[in-house]
Amino acid sequence: MTSAPLSVSEPIPETAGHPLIRLEEVTKTYFMRGYVVKALKKVSMEILPEDFITISGPSGSGKSTLLNIMGLLTDPNAGIFEFKGQEPVTLSDNERTDLRRNNIGFVFQMHRLFPNLTAVENLAIPLIPYMKGLEFNLIDKARELLNKVGLDPNKDRRAFEMSGGEQQRVAIARALINDPCIILADEPTGNLDEVTSDGIIEIFKSINESMHTSIVLVTHNSKFFPIGNKTYHMENGVISQLR
Ligand SMILES: Nc1ncnc2c1ncn2[C@@H]1O[C@H](COP(=O)(O)OP(=O)(O)OP(=O)(O)O)[C@@H](O)[C@H]1O
Ligand SMILES: [Mg+2]
């Protein structure tokens, strides 16, 4: 299955050339009962608009923790983390939620769709509380995005009736519903066979190239490391740039 061409949009002017995300010596430590886990150790990196970054590393090396910080889901214990020039630790809960909702799309290994809802409904549901303020028709937008990820919106099935690869396409379309400037994808092909995985990675590539969306892709599959413009590896909380 090939995806339909994606519409071309301009880079967000206020971020063009400036880092979308900046980490400087970011440390994240989990304090558990009786022991301490240093999940991130002085991680420094920048993500520019339109970057496509792949991150690899063994289980427990800190990849998801790093994505959770980038996605404003958790805060560092030390160091500087900026998203579009703002430090999320200084924001209220509402401001943080708005920043996340307006800028970030998430795709996980487990797609986390509502199984009994159709693809269109799964895309629309996160924005239903905000429907009054939307400048677009939510259902039309959902159908358009499904088309972009290679699914036929006229054959709108419930999530549980779809294959794993099709469900992951729906999850990618859902991540795009609010025109994010960055997609954070945590092992999105982890549960898929090779051919299906290739198709999913092609969709990310196409989104990056034609919509100018930055992508951060955590993957164990070394075949996908060269797909982006920068490649990082994590080991025991320490990040290094391979290219
Ligand atoms: N909420 C948490 N509370 C306590 N420790 C945590 C928490 N989240 C992660 N950790 C620990 O932090 C370390 C890094 O975990 P993380 O999930 O970031 O690794 P990962 O590289 O994503 O691994 P995987 O490839 O298995 O998904 C691990 O030792 C993990 O046990
Ligand atoms: Mg992980």
Instruction: Name the CATH homologous superfamily.
Output: P-loop containing nucleotide triphosphate hydrolases
* Overall structural domain count: 1
Mean pLDDT: 92
Query: Percent range for helical residues?
Result: 25-40%
Shape: globular
- Order of adjacent strands in the largest pleated sheet: 5-6-7-3-8-9
Radius of gyration: 18 Å
Please trace the helix and strand order, writing H or E for each element: EEEHEHEHHHEHEEE
Q: How would you sum up this structure in a few lines?
A:
With 243 residues, the protein is α/β, with parallel strands linked by helices. It has helices at 63-70, 93-103, 119-124, 138-148, 164-175, 194-211; strands at residues 21-32, 35-47, 52-56, 78-83, 104-108, 182-186, 214-218, 230-235, 238-241. The site of adenosine-5'-triphosphate (ATP) has 12 residues, from strand 1, strand 2 and helix 1.
Output the keywords.
243 residues; alpha/beta; Rossmann fold; 6-stranded mixed sheet; 3-stranded antiparallel sheet; binds adenosine-5'-triphosphate; binds magnesium ion
Structural features, described:
The strands form 2 sheets. This protein has a 6-stranded mixed sheet with strand order 5-6-7-3-8-9, with helices on both faces. Residues 1-13 have low confidence and may be disordered. Helix 4 packs across helix 5. It starts with 20 loop residues before the first strand and ends with a strand. A hairpin with a 2-residue loop joins strand 1 (21-32) and strand 2. Helices cover 27% and strands 25% of the residues. It has 243 residues and is of the alpha/beta class. It has helices at 63-70, 93-103, 119-124, 138-148, 164-175, 194-211, and strands at 21-32, 35-47, 52-56, 78-83, 104-108, 182-186, 214-218, 230-235, 238-241. The chain has a single domain (47-74, 95-241), classed as 3-Layer(aba) Sandwich (Rossmann fold). Residues 63-64, 186 line the site of magnesium ion (MG).
